[in-house]
Design a protein that fits this description.
Blueprint (H helix, E strand, L loop, with lengths): L2 H9 L10 H11 L7 E6 L5 H9 L2 E7 L2 H13 L6 E5 L12 E6 L8 H8 L3 E14 L6 H10 L4 E2 H10 L2 E8 L2 H14 L1 H7 L4 H20 L3 E10 L3
Helix pairs in contact: 2-3
Bound molecules: S-adenosylmethionine.
Length: 251
């Protein structure tokens, strides 16, 4: 089995594939000032198995287009949506986030939790703006330095893995430079990483290794995930996901 199939198998049964939480999705919704009654069109980009899409479907009177390039994740999302009777509100679309099959100004809201880094924050906010209606809202979570200085080991790790990692003020500037007005920001708290994401993943490591005959490839994936978890635990005072809420501006 190739690495991608192994990663899909490790992550697809989880509630979420990155740090976050239902309460934090709701908090972002409140900061965005979105009406819960108005009929909204929402795109959730890099939706995974639907953590945020399902929360948004529960809370909003919205048509949600849930985009991911992995059909296996979208299949899980559909099963979860049916289980909750939310399938009428969510349309899964298998597409790449750098080639979205949408008309300009198709959405009131673009939502993306823990996923925009796949094409980079700068490119994502710039490319996706055209799909927002005038005055539409972007909500995206993005890896963020929480302090001006940080330990060299941590800096080196993320400079290699995701060179766009930066402070909140720098991310706000990217938003402003790309035609958005930032309207809200908060940091994901620790439970979004540990209780909601890493601990459930760790609980499946043994089962995952057994399902794959303890292969070298499967063990390499567990080791890489374990390394990232240890790094987070050691340096969680310096890094988190920032949640950025911004309105498409007229300029
Ligand atoms: N938003 C979900 C959550 O918070 O649980 C998933 C976050 S996961 C870290 C990133 C997601 O982005 C995965 O579901 C992955 O399949 C998807 N993804 C990665 N690259 C993509 C691309 N180029 N186009 C669309 N989806 C992509």
């Amino acid at each position: 089995m190739d690495e991608l199939q192994l990663l899909i198998d490790l992550h697809k049964h989880a509630n979420r594939q990155g740090p976050g939480g239902d309460a934090e999705t709701e908090r972002a919704l409140d900061l965005a000032g979105l009406s819960r009654a108005a009929p909204l069109k929402v795109a959730d980009i890099g939706c995974g198995t639907g953590a945020s899409a399902l929360t948004l479907a529960r809370m909003l009177n919205a048509e949600i287009t849930a985009v991911d390039f992995l059909q296996a994740f979208l299949d899980e999302l559909e099963t979860r949506a049916r289980r909750e009777g939310l399938e009428e509100k969510i349309t899964p679309v298998c597409a790449s986030m750098d080639e979205l099959p949408f008309e300009d100004e198709a959405f009131d809201v673009i939502w993306s939790e823990g996923a925009i880094y796949n094409i980079g924050f700068q490119k994502g906010v710039s490319d996706w703006k055209r799909y927002l209606k005038p005055g539409g809202v972007l909500v995206a979570s993005e890896l963020t330095w929480t302090t001006g200085m940080r330990p060299a080991e941590l800096q080196q790790h993320w400079d290699n893995e995701y060179p766009e990692v930066d402070t909140a003020s720098a991310k706000m500037k990217v938003l402003e430079d790309n035609g958005y007005s930032p309207v809200g920001y908060f940091l994901l708290p620790e439970h979004c990483w540990l209780a909601n994401y890493y601990r459930p993943m760790q609980a499946d490591f043994q089962g995952f290794l057994e399902r794959h005959g303890n292969s070298d490839e499967a063990r390499a994936i567990v080791e890489a995930e374990q390394h990232e978890i240890e790094l987070y635990e050691k340096y969680k005072a310096f890094v988190s996901y920032g949640v950025y809420i911004a309105k498409k501006s007229d300029a």
